[in-house]
Each structure stands twice: as C-alpha cells, then as structure tokens.
Amino acid sequence: MLTFYFHPTPNSMKVALFLKESGLDYELAPVDTLKGEQHQPAFRAINPNGKLPAIEDDGKRVFDSNAILLYLAEKHGKFLGKPEDRGELLSWLMFVATGLGPYSGQSVHFRTVAKDKSDYAANRYLREAQRHYKVLDDHLAGREFFVGDSYSIVDIAAWGWIDRVANVLGEGALDAYPNLKRWFDGVNARPAVAEARQIAKDVAFKSERDEAALRALFPSNYAETA
C-alpha cells in the first residue's frame, strides 16, 4: 500500500496530480504543517527534513516531491516520455526542483511573510522567479509539452508551482508569458487536475498563520543563537 503524506502546498499538489493521472491506489495521510505535525517523530521517520510531501510505498520511504514523481513514474512506467528524451526530462525536472520551486517560494516568503522586510531580498527573489518563468516561456514556444511530444512528470512538476502564479508574481502575471499560459491552460483543463484539487476536501487544515503556525513553519527563525 502507498501512503501519501499531504498538505495542500505546491509540492504536495504535484504528487496529488500524478496519483490522479495514474490511477494508483493510495492512502491519504494529512499532515498539518501549521500545527507543527511535520516535526513529530513519527513523520520525521518518513522525512528527516520535516517537509511535505512524502510517501511510504510498501515500507519504503521517499521524500522530496520531484524524487517522488521520478520514483513513481519509473516504478509504474508512466509519464516518462521517450527513452531518447531522458536527458531532457531529467534536466527540466531538476530545473523545477532547484530553480522554479525554491525561487518562487522565496519570492512569496520575502514579500509576504518576512517581518523585517528586506527590499533587496524581496526584489532578488521576485526577479529570479520572473527569470525562471521566462526560461520556461521561451522553451515552450511551439511546444505543447516540456519534453518531447507527450505529457510527462515535468509538466506535472511545473504545474504545481505555476498554479500559484498569483502568489508568486501577482494577479494576471501569467499574461506576460503567453507560451507558458497556453501550456498551463492546457494542463489545468485535464480532468485529473480537478480531481487533485479535491484530494483532501474533507480535511480541516489549520488556516490561521498565528505565532504558533509561524514557529512551526519556520523553526530556524526562532532558534536560540549560541
């Protein structure tokens, strides 16, 4: 049995979309990060880094969203593209993992969360997020999908973050990237996306970002210095 540890964030939504696209059976295990459940020993045994998502597959743990996508795609032979496109697939998958995702997340953090706001940091991550969007937009010129001629885990991985463009770059920002917008609209119209959005509809996750939630989300900010 596959257990899916989930909180409704961009990285978790990638895995949710893969599961719905592939039709794999799974057990949902909600982890409320605003309540600090990711720091409990039982979950740290699944992901020592205390982040979502993670899976347990017949006793084997896999954590980090793109690692999970690659693991499940290889195990089940789904959404990997053609063998001759393997290098391209890995390159774009890592681009999402090391570029699009982290810079988008930091752009949101420094513009909306940071108490002692740094104009330099906010501008730095916003401009880098915009640059990553431009890289994706340029690549998609004349293409339906990111890799080859078929829908792959790269499209699934990128969708998780592009879906949050309003938070990352602002409302309507995707209009500045017409190729990326066309691609996103195509992926977003897939039936599995609507199913993924409902994956935890009956779970009442905490929504208030009070002091306890901030301590749970950003524990290193509250760590005592030596």
UniProtKB/TrEMBL annotation:
Transferase is among the record's keywords: yes
Domain GST C-terminal: 82-214
Entry keyword set: Transferase
Pfam families, per the entry: GST_C, GST_N
Signal sequence segment: none
Keyword Transferase: yes
Molecular function terms from GO: transferase activity
Domain of life of the native organism: Bacteria
Record-annotated GST N-terminal domain positions: 1-80
Gene3D superfamilies: 1.20.1050.10, Glutaredoxin
Family per record: Belongs to the GST superfamily.
Protein name as annotated: Glutathione S-transferase family protein
Annotated source species: Aurantimonas marianensis
